[in-house]
Amino acid sequence: MNTAPTASPPSTTSPPAAAAPAVRSGGGPWQLARAELRRRTSVKLSLVVVAFFALMTVAASLIGSLGGWGPEEFDKSAVDPYLGGLPIGPLGGVSAEHWLGVEPVTGRDLFARVVHGAQVSLLIAFSATAIVVVAGTAAGIAAGYFGGRTDTVLSRLMDLTMSFPSLIFMIAMMSVARDVNRIVLMTAVIGLFGWPGIARVVRGQTLSLKHREYVDAARVGGSGPWRILARDILPGVAGPVIAYTTLIVPGMIATEAALSYLGVGVRPPTPSWGQMIAESVAYYDTDPMYFAVPSLCLFLTVLAFTLLGDALRDILDPRGSGT
Question: CA 93 → CA 75, 163, 201, 289, 295, distances in Å?
Answer without folding.
Answer: 11, 47, 49, 9, 18
